[in-house]
Amino acid sequence: MQAKVIISQDLSGVGQVSMGVALPLIAALGHDPLPLPTALLSAHTGFANNTYFDLSAQMAEILTHWESLELDPQAILLGYLGKNALKVWQTWLPQFNDVPLVVIDPVMGDHGKLYRGFDDAYVQAMRALITHATVITPNPTEAQLLLGDELNAEPLTMKAARSLGTRLAQRFGVQVVLTGVTLVNDRVGVIVVDGDDLKWWQTQRLSGHYFGTGDIFAAVLCGALLRGLTLGQASEIAVHFESRAIISTLAMKADPKFGVAYTTEIPWLLEMISKLL
Question: Are 114 and 145 in contact (CB under 8 A)?
Fold first, then answer.
């Protein structure tokens, strides 16, 4: 039986990010995506002068209709929300407390800075929202914001990264996958905190900026967990899938501004998951 997955984040017409990557990945992993877009953009915000149309006013009506359909979703995946959509989910997410898996990517900032248009009130609201999550997938900047730490974009030691992930899990009572950790050894790390279980991986740090990688990671993680993998297994698969997608993009000489060439790696992803089941 296919798992029904509510996916709520923005949808960009140009650029492989957010809803644009979550829908095909969740479907490819054998699940039934239920898209609930928070906004429609002409292109993601890496492109200048993009349009932005807020869809949050429709979200409550859609969710109310879905209730009447008795869909029984098995998972919820939340990505970039924005102020208005976050308010909707503050009301609705507690009503889904019987959903077995809630994955929240608390998209708020990166590289030691809060994203433009967000403020302390948004951070406080996100702190409240993630208490309803099963798993959260922040980057180090978002972890610092959630904890109220001073923002710092400097590379971390593995010890400092493990401490950041552990403190986050203990404070909010959730499983944590700390992503995109720039390490002092010029590699990129991922820290997984699942109760008393602590795991971590390092991969090659590739030059350049690649849009949508966090969205890809969260979608693969969610889909793999629904297939029956452990948090550690799902995180490791997602790490290597993301890395392979970036390498494929470089090999194709594709413009990373449009997102990474992840579709070429989907056969590998399905094969690896099948081997672990």
Answer: yes
- Taking CA 139 as the corner, what is the angle to CA 236 and CA 112, rounded to the nearest 5 degrees? 150
Q: Are 110 and 102 in contact (CB under 8 A)?
A: no
Encode pLDDT of 240-262 as tens digits: 999 999 999 889 888 889 989 99
Q: How many CA atoms lie within 13 A of 23 on its CB side?
A: 14
Determine the topology of domain 4-276 in CATH: UDP-N-acetylmuramoyl-L-alanine:D-glutamate ligase (3.40.1190)
Q: Give bridge partners of residue 14 from the DSSP assignment.
A: 43
DSSP 44: -
Other CB atoms within 10 A of residue 120 CB: 10
CB atoms within 10 A of CB 218: 29
Query: pLDDT tens digit string along 38-48?
Result: 999 999 998 99
* Span 6-18, pLDDT tens digits: 999 999 999 999 9
**DSSP notation for 70-128:** T---SEEEE----HHHHHHHHHHGGGGTT-SEEEE----EETTEEPTT--HHHHHHHHH
Q: What integer pLDDT is reported at residue 1 of this predicted model? A: 62
Could you give phi then psi for residue 224, rounded to 5 degrees? -70, -40
Domain boundary assignment for the chain: 4-276
